[in-house]
Amino acid sequence: MNIKNNYSLKNYNSFGVEAYSRYFSYIGSNDEIKALLEWHNQSELPLLLLGGGSNVLFKQDYQGMTAVIATKGIEVIDEDQYYTYVKVAAGENWHQLVRWSVNNGYGGIENLSLIPGTVGAAPIQNIGAYGVELADCFHELEAIDIASGTVSLFDQKACQFGYRDSYFKSSAFGNFLIQSVTLKFAKQPHWIMDYVGVKACLSGQPITSKRISDCIIQLRQSKLPDPLAIGNAGSFFKNPILSSNEWHQLKRQHPKVSAYPQAGGAIKVSAAWLIDHCGWKGKRFGDAGVYEKHALVLVNHGKATGESLWTLATQIIESVEGQFSITLEAEPRLIG
Question: Which of 59, 103, 206, 261 would be a feasible disulfide site paired with 306, CB 3.0-4.6 Å?
Fold first, then answer.
């Protein structure tokens, strides 16, 4: 394991925020994972695990070890009457996995095209888009207990998936390193195509997973900035979930509010709609701003600090709460 000192993390977070880590290592194998955990337990310094760095905001430098998990491998390991099971190393790029799946005729994750980050980070956040979540096609994962080095299998129930949430993000936060994820691809896929723009894009074409993926890519590229061109972490805020009573009260006051019904009668309200109607879309304060095409995306126009981006985020939260009595929750993990 190669360890670097006082290392810049600017190229390892999609916001492109300048921050330094006291120690840094790029982990490319399971042997290096083992060495990393041994080093961590001997040093007793904090450990920050990164995949694509697409779900973090550095407010300050990191005073421990930052390790980028970059292990590779995609393998079909089993199949039965209903599913094909594919095991994927944690360091694989998520979008490249989606394209691998659709190019090989496996359906189920096409709606999750172009989501930044790595496979190992996907279950922590329970990534989702266009009516599909990782949990919908998840089978199991291998996770290493950071303190003991023990490898355990977690099935869907053990992962406790919720809306942009999981066991690894909530009650077991920071306790495990995800080593691999096994997905199950239905041999008779159930395609989700009801979201605005998807139906229109597919109109008149034979439906395949690849065509859906192509449409999702077009839609995301039309609305969301490329992190390589302008720093961002995709959607910065979760869509708030309201009870039926809360929703009807909001609807009476704001008839045009955008929302989506959920299981059990709850309603998911569009955070982008709330932010836009508070006048934030396209606003810029120094190099910290709100993307002009999508109110849910905070952007770094060049030299924004994590602190300035978080200040903007808190102002948006206060603004939405003041106008709608709804408290937004940030998706990215705050460091510092």
Answer: 59
Cβ atoms within 10 Å of 157's Cβ, excluding its own: 8
| Cβ pair 197, 219 in contact under 8 A | yes
How much is the pLDDT for 151? 97
Domain holding 265, by residue range, is 225-335
Specify the amino acid at residue 186.
Answer: A
Q: How many structural domains are present in the chain?
A: 3
- Would you please indicate which residues are annotated as catalytic (active-site) residues? 164, 235, 331
Please give the model's pTM, rounded to 2 decimal places.
Answer: 0.89
The pLDDT-based confidence of 265 (bands split at 50, 70, 90) is confident
The CA-based angle 162-168-171, given to 5 degrees, is 85
DSSP string, 127-167: -EETTEEGGGGEEEEEEEETTT--EEEEEHHHHT-BTTB-T
Give me the phi and psi of 195, to 5 degrees please. -70, 150
pLDDT of amino acid 196: 74
Query: Cα angle at 57 between 134 and 116, to 5 degrees?
Result: 35
Do residue 196 and residue 263 come from a single domain? Answer: no
Give the closest residue to 235 by CA, choosing from 67, 115, 118, 100.
115
Residue with tokens 């995306």: 297
8 Å CB contact between 124 and 169: yes
Cα 88 to Cα 22, 93, 193: the distances in Å are 30, 10, 26
For residues 208 and 273, membership in a common domain is answered with: no
Please name the residue that has the structure tokens 């999750």: 112
CATH code for the domain in which residue 26 is found: 3.30.43.10
The verdict on 255 and 185 lying in the same domain is no
Q: Is 246 exposed, middle or buried (0-12, 13-18, 19+ CB in 10 A)?
A: middle
Q: What's the pLDDT tens digit per position in 42-88? A: 998 999 999 999 999 999 999 999 999 999 999 999 999 999 999 99
